[in-house]
């Protein structure tokens, strides 16, 4: 496997696949937090313990294959350039915490980028599986299989009453975070999200931005995940989240139908204005680009725009992030330079499909 594929291609292979309800649910993610028995947790462990854990994963799993996921490659954070780490964050393959704060952190990435195993993040092990569309159950199954694979070689920190022990009390129990990434432009346009978010929070779930806690919901993309990890089984947590997501899918579809019926010309105008701006702008900031891309994606899903595939929008959502722009430029760019390159890249990619 080519080491640099993780940084050079915008779309992971799983992103090219169509998943259930993918017009609204962009991806499903399962993350399991685990710690190794008889080792101090990452908040207090020594440098030697941290290095010992990385060496263990390098020897035991790097270069090894698992099922359809393919081979795993170990990437050490202290051997990567800042731009390379930022690219991995933008592709959701590692967390911002691992990229920025984990001096002795590492990550095992699978060949198809469907699975990543973060090492020495907030916990010793963070197993993550990503699937296209609404596939939480499928992602949980693969995450559990990887969990069993690792546990064949190591003993976890586990308590019979509390479950899996983690650095943060909010993860104790199952150590499970299940989440979906949803594109909800119609609920924003009809001003329903401000009412929906508090209702979701009351159900023990949380609504965050594109890159998790503290991030902004760029391009009307929201991450919905569980908060409770203790007192419920993994299956129950996932089923609770699935029930809420199904309701959100239904409400988003109803909101889209209402917009088409009551504000069709205004909606069409908004979509094609955004399309025109993306096709012709010479300078565009990341926030505006995300909003315009959201409008175009909605136009594709509703059938207004027929000559642009969905995947090109998924690709551009990642390609236009600062890390990727600088990776392609071969070095650091000032914000104004990034805005110019972002506009040029969007024009190039959209025109390549228009002229086919």
TrEMBL record:
GO terms for molecular function: ATP binding; creatine kinase activity; protein arginine kinase activity. The keyword Iron does not apply. One of its GO terms (cellular component) is extracellular space. It is an enzyme of class 2 (transferase). A motif (RDXXRA motif of the pArg binding pocket involved in allosteric regulation) lies at residues 338-343. The keyword ATP-binding applies. Belongs to the ATP:guanido phosphotransferase family. This is Protein-arginine kinase. The gene is mcsB.
